[in-house]
Amino acid sequence: MSEETTSSEDDITAIETPVYLTYNFTAGEATTRFLHQVRKGKVMGQRCPGCGNVYAPARGSCAACGLPTSEEVELGNKATVQSFTIVWIPIPNNPIQPPYIVANLVPDGANISFIHLMSECDNDSVHIGQRVEAVWKPEEEWDYAMDNIRYFRPLDEPDVPIEMIGKVPLSGWEGKA
User: Fold this and answer.
1) Half-sphere exposure of residue 11, counting CA atoms within 13 Å on the CB side?
2) Strands 131-136 and 149-154
3) Secondary structure of the chain: what % helix, strand, coil (to 5)?
4) Which of these, 75, 176, 173, lies nearest to 131 by C-alpha position?
């Protein structure tokens, strides 16, 4: 190589390469049942017959035991923040402008979290163990999608201790272990 091509002036350190993907998603039996219930305004989970874990959205099998899950469990609109991040970078074509919160939320009565947005809150006040509730779109806008729930907002309830997250019964949290 010549000296001309090895100088740092000629080094390319990054390029922008937009990627556009078109794909079809096949929901499968468990997800199809879950989405049909979300279309009706219900969040459903499935319980593992071996360990008793409740998964929402339903996955059709237990990640811990490998057993098929078929017992349906209706969950409520309340959840606990398991983890979260404040998003500061805008996403192209996304109507939500930063900063905003994306959180892993464990629904009451379930053991496993799902990801959703939080709103109606001061981003600096969001914390692990915080209690939240679902804010649904108007029923006439419901479709077969998790975004029927617009976001989750904080509740004026006692925090759930970290060791109790994923163990809150469907009846909710009263601030007692």
Assistant:
1) 4
2) antiparallel
3) 15, 30, 55
4) 173
Q: Nearest 5°: CA angle at 123, between 81 and 103?
A: 30
- Identify the bridge partners of residue 100 per DSSP, sorted by sequence position: 87
Could you state, in order of their start, the residue ranges of all structural domains in the chain?
28-164
Cis check for the bond before 99: say yes or no (omega within 30 of 0). yes
Residue 88 carries which DSSP code?
-
H-helix or E-strand spanning residue 79:
strand 78-87
pLDDT digits (tens), the chain, 177 positions: 555 555 557 788 888 888 888 888 888 899 999 999 999 999 999 999 999 999 999 889 999 999 999 899 999 999 999 999 999 998 888 888 899 999 999 999 999 999 999 999 999 999 999 999 999 999 999 999 999 999 999 999 999 999 999 989 888 887 665
